[in-house]
Every structure is written in C-alpha cells, then in structure tokens.
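Worked problem 6 (solution included).
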Amino acid sequence: MILTTTNNIEGFKIVDYLGIVTGTAYDSSYSSNGRKMSFKDMFSMTKYKEMYTLGLESIKENAFQNLKDNATKLGANAVVGIQIDVEPLANSTTLLVSITGTAVKVA
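Solution. The predicted structure is:
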C-alpha cells in the first residue's frame, strides 16, 4: 500500500478514485508497548519526552494501520492527500490521532 501526502504518485497513474478514508486511534500519551510512565518519571523531562514520543508514535502507527485496512476494504492500493491530526482529549493524558486521505487505485 502506497501512502503519501501528495495528490499524485510519481511513476504511477491514478486509475480510480474510491473515496475518502480515515484511520483513527487513541490512547494515553504516557504509555508505549504496554509500559506506563511512573509518577516519579513524570518529573524527569527526559523520561517524560521519551515516553510521550513513544506513546504518540504507537498511537500514530495504529491509526495508519486502520487507514490501510479501510482503504483495502475499498479495493485501493494507495492513499493520496494524507493529512494527520493529533488532538489531546480534554482533562486527560489521552491523545487522539486521526488520519484522512483519498483511497485510489494506481497502475
């Protein structure tokens, strides 16, 4: 599956536009691979940044997998025009990642 933020793919021709697809995922930004940040680590900027980054990457990968699954259901072999939105949910440590693009068939 080809994923791109651009509206076309160099070396390929879009032969069919199949529709808009979205992939979403959410989780705590302070957990990664089943590991949670300890209360003590929240006061260490290095640990805080490391866990926050790993947590965000994990959520983003889940959202991309959902996007690919949804595009595959439409018969697509690529998604163009991808936009990523990351939003914190109010009063929590949860991040929501939403990825949207256009599912296409390319040849």
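Discussion: The first strand starts at residue 2 and ends at 3.
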